Amino acid sequence: MGWTWLNRSKGESNEEFFIRTGVLRWDIPGVDYRVLKSATINSTFYAAVERTEGPKRQVFAVIILIRWDPRAKYRNNFGYKDMDETEGPYEARCPDAILDLLTETGSEYAKAWRERCRRWNEVKARTQRWTGPILLQEALHLQSRDGDIRELEIVCKASRRGYLIARSLGPDLIGQEFQVRKSFLQNRLAQEQL
Predict the structure, then answer these.
(1) 106 CB contacts (<8 Å, ≥6 apart)?
(2) The CATH number of domain 130-192 is 2.30.30
(3) DSSP assignment letter at 76
(4) CB of 149 within 8 A of CB of 168?
(5) Which residue in 69, 90, 81 sits closest to 2, CA to CA?
(6) Low-confidence ranges of the chain (pLDDT < 50)
(7) Does the model's pTM come out above 0.85?
(8) Which positions ≥6 away from 147 have C-beta within 8 Å?
(9) At what angle do helices 182-192 and 108-129 cross, to 10 degrees?
(10) Do 134 and 149 touch, CB atoms closer than 8 A?
């Protein structure tokens, strides 16, 4: 439900820390758990956890939001909020390498979360290349100019950190160049695929 804050020293991986503190360790007789693969994307930790009970085997996703508080010098400098995929987490940028390890699930929340992750990964892969025109279903309104943009192309990938230079291809503002944050454009494209 809420966040757990405790002291954590640097130098230990997220996976090692969560296993050592018991977040990714379950003590159930006759049931074994192990982390198959994990990754940290931005401030979210994703893991594929295998659960075996006799001949039964299940692999599910664990999602842990993480926060560092640099102002807390001696204690409670690290916070986390753990959940699994059946809780329908908002964060949905789990890598395909982890998603591919997961077994079938009956949870509708987990299925929807996996689909959102797959969509995000598709958009991310597509936008790494930025080739050809980009068509937006909903117009992109620029505050500094009069007009809306539905069709654009990426002219330069390295303006400022995290920004792209784009050129309008639509009838409004044709040929005009502007800056757009890469993450904003990726999020917009991912939402339009819903």
Answers:
(1) none
(2) yes
(3) -
(4) yes
(5) 81
(6) 159
(7) no
(8) 168, 172, 173
(9) 130
(10) no
